[in-house]
């Protein structure tokens, strides 16, 4: 659970403060690096955490005064509904966080292996 | 293996980051765009919220803003600086992207936003000299301290709003195109004014007329492109005597055959740009007070071209529409006067063909000598590309806009230089401000003297009971037809020598008929001694307005509203009975019976449900094509065809004419034949396009109106609007063009006003105020305008109040 909540909370705080979208790469990368044991925790759980955050935040914005903009952007992007748009948003977050989490985890393994050999 | 996987993961991450962080063609950077903390998700209705008290850095005193239920700001300030500061601040709050984007278009800086695909557009725009003209104007305006204060206050207000933005609150379009606003400057306002001048005076048929004259002869042009078109009821009633001694130009240039053959109309402003305005005196109204009406016809877009606003200081209280990006109210009213504008249409842009010494375009022939041309270097920044330096020559006529396709016999290259009145220094800004504070006819006419370009027909009504109209602007003194054709630029003959004296421009006050009006038609009758141009709007709208105003008495707002929405097709009334008589029923397909029946019984009113209104429109276009396209396809382009009224007169009066024959077929065609063929073709095209005669043929469906977003992004516009009206109809609504602001004002003890524009106050597609007025505009409904005298809103629940305070 903590592996899902940690990226969710950390990315949330950083994005509220600094807006940039690439926190969903940087935070999972670091969290992935800090994860010692499980690639599943490093990648999938982090990805899921970011998915929940982006999907949840998108739905929150949509349902809090965002109905018109969501309807219009859904038409601009040729998707059927706001829900699909929110899902797509979540999936983008998931994909980036998944890859970043995996990359961080892999890097740790490579560096530790190198360190142990030397 | 792990190292390989790690490298692969990082590579994938880098690729994904790049893909989602930058635009991919027209797709926005999806990582940024979908980011629910700063992407489009943040552009919802919460951006409409404004606090009751707002700290605004830069104000000199407290400003109060009353918001009505349509989000119109009614601004109450204690001094001039604050009122324009607040106007800039609040307009930017609603329309920042639009106002900045339009200045990029004007300045030829679109490549900075969308990359190399806009380079040719930017190049042409620079060569037209809009940026140069704006720089000249800003220098001139800066010499007047009051103008400078207005422009600077507005710019400071805009910049204060820009500084308050963060990545989440940026307007949507910046997120779509992935860029950020830059600092607003007074030059940007100047650019916007020049852009409007270009939009209203930039279209020109000189090149076409030169080619037609060279190919088909002088007589052809004289006959089919006359200065006085049939039926025209000029703006100033034709009988008016002109009691002044007119100046005469020193020399009139001889005929000239240019080397150019290209079609210059491509990329020029919309031919439909026009407007209606009129004012009726108290003698003709039920209340005894004068009423003014105005509806400018422009390209319809979202965000809307206009921004509604009230500006109030101890010295001024004015209401109307402003141009986002420019201070003050352009069309509107105060407690003493109301004014409206229509485009003058008089010619203030001439083309001169210049002979250059060689391909460097640095020296040109003038008075048989080689004169050095000034060189202007334009730096065009291209997004994700290298910066281009574009040099163009400045001749004594103006900038060299086009290079010639052909060399002269002596081997020298040619170019087309543009002489445009808007390149000259002028201060329209102070004119508009002075209009806003004018109290009567005299002060209004003094104010508009500074309004040089674009030339406008200013209609005025005053509380004192005056009504007046003036064909206003800076118009060159020319001989007959000078400016109708491209001229040789080698000597003084044909150059602009002077301007028509301001007090000799067509104008009239309180005419006996009890009204004044204009609809872009010729400003004065044949006895007016100056040549102002020839390419005016055809007679229909002007005549219909005058016919109705002649008939109407005890006029009320509803009558004026009905007239602005009037769908009567005067040209169809003139031509349809004749055209129907020419039809050979036996040769027509058997299934056209219902169409013919409807055409015979049509009352010429082009309401949205009328099926035959669209049939007639298309039939007429086919007739025009059949008569003119064969002769007038010259150098692979269909050139400017004669006006509807000229073609109508020919058809009615001339049973036999060489033009009726299609020169591309061996058999000779006659009048009746082309009318029949055009009808058959029209029906065939409509059936192919719309299916069997039925609902789909209704004007509101077959044509209708679409209001596109400025970037033409599907999903951000309003297509499929069920509208009537059309070309040559008072309600000049067309597919993408039409009445951009409908306004009615009655000047009694307190002004009473109604208005509407097809859009909304907000430029944010996520706001309900983005397009909230569109449906009412389509239906012909108007909003009651609230002209407030103070910021005291009492218990009025439909109003809200914001205090803007300087926090320093």
Task: Report what the structure shows.
The complex is a heterodimer of chains A (about 120) and B (about 800). With about 120 residues, chain A is mostly helical. Helices cover about 85% and strands about 0% of the residues of chain A. Chain A is built from five helices and no strands. The longest helix of chain A is centred in the last third of the chain and has 36 residues, at about 80-115. The N and C termini of chain A lie far apart (about 35 Å). Chain B is α+β, with helices and mostly antiparallel strands. In chain B, helix 6 (about 130-140) crosses helix 9 (about 185-200). The termini of chain B are far apart. Chains A and B meet through helix 3, helix 4 and helix 5 of A and helix 1 and helix 2 of B.
Number of helices of chain B: 22
Q: In oligomeric terms, what are we looking at?
A: heterodimer
Poorly predicted regions of chain A: none
What structural class results from the helix and strand content of chain A?
mainly alpha
Largest sheet entry of chain B? 11 strands, mixed
State the largest interface: A-B, 41 and 42 residues
| Spatial order of the strands forming the largest sheet of chain B | 1-31-2-3-7-8-9-10-18-19-21
Number of DSSP strand runs of chain B:
31
Mean pLDDT of chain A: 92
The percentage of residues in β strands of chain A lies in under 5%
Radius of gyration of chain B, Cα only, in angstroms?
A: 28 Å
- Proportion of helical residues of chain B: 25-40%
- Main sheet of chain A, how many strands, which sense, barrel? none
Distance between the termini of chain A: 35 Å
The class by helix and strand makeup of chain B works out as alpha+beta
